[in-house]
Structure formats: C-alpha cells, structure tokens
Amino acid sequence: MRSRSAAAAAVSLAALGLLTGCSMTESGAAAATAAPAGPAKDGTYRATGDYDTPGGPESVTVTLTVKAGIVRAVHVTGSGTTPNAQHYEAAFESGISGVVVGRRLAGLTVGAVSGSSLTGIGFDAALDAIRREAAS
To answer: May I ask the CATH class of domain 43-135?
Structure first.
C-alpha cells in the first residue's frame, strides 16, 4: 500500500513540475527552465547545444536569424564524432529549416527531425541560449 502511495506521489510531483514549466533531470529532480526576459531582438544568433548519444556526447552549433520574433533562417552544424552521429546530424540539418523557419522563437522546440531524435535535444539547448541572448 505504501509503495502505491509513494508512486502516486512521485507521479503527482512529476506532473506538477511539467505544469509549472519545469523539466526532470536524470536524477529525477525538477530543473527550472528560464523564460526570456522580453521579446526577441532582431538579429543573427549563434549557440551550441550538447546532447548524449549511445556513442558518446555530441553537440550542434545553431545559427538563427530572427526578425520580429520570427525565425527567418537557420543553419545547423553537428560535431559528428562517429559515423552514426554524422548520419543523423546530416538528416537533422537537411530537415530543420522546414520545421522552424516562419515560426515564433518564443516557445519553439523541436523533436525528431528527419528521423533524428537525439540531435533535437542539442538543438533545443542551443535555442534556450539563443532566446536568452535575444531577450537581453
């Protein structure tokens, strides 16, 4: 009975974290996601986002052009230290423009793009950095 109560409490806390704009870390702790302080300024921004793959850590460098809060152009370059990572990063790079160009920077996130699911984690990390820079 106690294990059911503990499990229910854990699920409730996880749901609360999602509803309050938090995400769960690998340790299960809630990590706050910072919202930008204001609207994005026009400009071209560059940031690198890291992500983990079965073959080890990788990263993507994202260059984004923003005008009136809308993504106007995007370029992604992956670190690709293994052939598998290079394959998936190339797939991601080929499809990302169709996913983000024309969309608002505020709240933008991506999932799997062109069959590449892990690269999007690094892309979203870079987007967070770009949003912070564009709002300052």
So the answer is: alpha beta
